[in-house]
TrEMBL record:
Pfam families membership: DNA_binding_1
Tagged with keyword Endoplasmic reticulum: no
InterPro entries for this protein: ATL_DNA_repair (IPR052520), MethylDNA_cys_MeTrfase_AS (IPR001497), MethylDNA_cys_MeTrfase_DNA-bd (IPR014048), MethylDNA_cys_MeTrfase_DNAb (IPR036217), WH-like_DNA-bd_sf (IPR036388)
PROSITE patterns: MGMT
Species: Bifidobacterium aemilianum
Domain Methylated-DNA-[protein]-cysteine S-methyltransferase DNA binding: 7-88
GO MF annotation list: methylated-DNA-[protein]-cysteine S-methyltransferase activity
UniProt key word Cytoplasm: no
Record keywords: DNA damage, DNA repair, Methyltransferase, Transferase
Catalytic activity: a 6-O-methyl-2'-deoxyguanosine in DNA + L-cysteinyl-[protein] = S-methyl-L-cysteinyl-[protein] + a 2'-deoxyguanosine in DNA; a 4-O-methyl-thymidine in DNA + L-cysteinyl-[protein] = a thymidine in DNA + S-methyl-L-cysteinyl-[protein]
Gene Ontology biological-process entries: DNA repair; methylation
Protein name (Swiss-Prot/TrEMBL): Cysteine methyltransferase
DNA sequence: AGATTGACAGACA
DNA sequence: CTGTCTGCCAATC
């Protein structure tokens, strides 16, 4: 009710609701915003980022737990520091991890994935 | 004003 | 198991 706002605004609301120390995936945010298919729209919403500093895009990660390489505010390395500073559990760069979004550093979704 | 892209994710072959 | 394709909405060219 009284929320005819586009998914875009919906995404901002969800992302801003992510508690400190936890992270959410694009799919989860998109799911809370309406449909998990909007995952690509979630990234777009954060891309416009009409309210910088207000939307913790660093708390939004891929389904694999990796981040957006090159699109983070200052680099995936900075993101790891921020999340780690918030108390988010990270997995060390495993050699067998071909998923090296943030230099092999993946967020431990098993522990820190945000759940409403 | 129309076509294409876009920080993804899931389903299918 | 890997690779490819589609689906969704809005913004941009």
């Amino acid at each position: 009710m009284s929320t005819p706002e586009s998914f875009n605004e919906r995404v901002y609301e969800v992302v801003k609701r992510i508690p400190r120390g936890l992270v959410a995936t694009y799919g989860q945010v998109a799911a809370l915003a309406g449909n998990h298919r909007n995952a690509r729209f979630v990234g777009y919403a954060l891309h416009v980022n009409p309210e910088p500093g207000m939307i913790p895009c660093h708390r939004v990660v891929f389904r694999d737990g990796s981040l957006a390489p090159g699109f983070a505010f200052g680099g995936p390395e900075e993101q790891r520091v921020l999340l780690e500073g918030e108390g988010v559990a990270f997995t060390p760069p495993v050699k067998c991890q071909k998923n090296a979004g943030a230099e092999g550093w993946l967020v431990d979704l098993s522990r820190c994935q945000w759940q409403d």
